[in-house]
């Protein structure tokens, strides 16, 4: 008796064995050590530069009076309107002071770390923009020393950091060795916060990504309400950031390469997973067919 057999169908690859592709595998990430040295070096240069700009007390107060008058001429709302709302609650003032003292730098560092790890192309762009804005700010600090509104008698505002705490500044600007208190314009608190929001909006595709704008909005209310900055400080920071963004453009296709990469990877994985499931289902329904069968048997 002769018989022939049909080979068993190859078993489908289990879904668990399908590797989810990395959406960032094609993006070149800058060397970590170089980036650390670069970012730290820029920060040190900025801090040293701010200290060099210190010591212009008389000029800083003259400029403060000018800025105060300019704001009245432009009919900008008084900083006291924001501070008045804060002063209704000691807890609210303390939270605002804490936000001013502790969120600014850590939030920017966290932003850069995440961008470096998850969006390398966006990271290089964001780092360059932040460096340009910071350099421009340093130039303004050197050429236009400015006392903050909390030190300006004409403003009639409370130095909430000194009264309620915490504060990052000494009680007397002339003897403060930790910070230059005459570097109010532009506000890097606001400029950096706005860039963090813009960078995350550009680098992500979530429908909720616009909520990142709450960070610069809250920062603006804090810097004005605590009398550390004038409205014009934030306006100038926004202008500098706008110029930097116009000059330093995000590379064409960066969004498609990185921001859409995760979506594409997920879709590819789900499609492969579905194909494997369908093959598995067909094999289960006809399990007997996977065993060699005797066909065309004859005596």
From TrEMBL:
Keyword Transmembrane in annotation: yes
UniProt keyword terms in alphabetical order: Membrane, Transmembrane, Transmembrane helix
CDD domains: PAP2_Aur1_like
Gene Ontology CC: one annotated term: membrane
Membrane topology classification: Multi-pass membrane protein
Stretches for region Disordered: 1-26, 272-299
Subcellular location: Membrane
Main location class: membrane
Domain of life: Bacteria
Pfam families the record matches: PAP2_3 (PF14378)
Domain Inositolphosphotransferase Aur1/Ipt1 intervals: 66-246
Membrane-spanning parts: 99-117, 129-147, 182-203, 210-228, 234-250
Name of the protein described by the UniProt record: Inositol phosphorylceramide synthase
Origin species: Streptomyces olivochromogenes
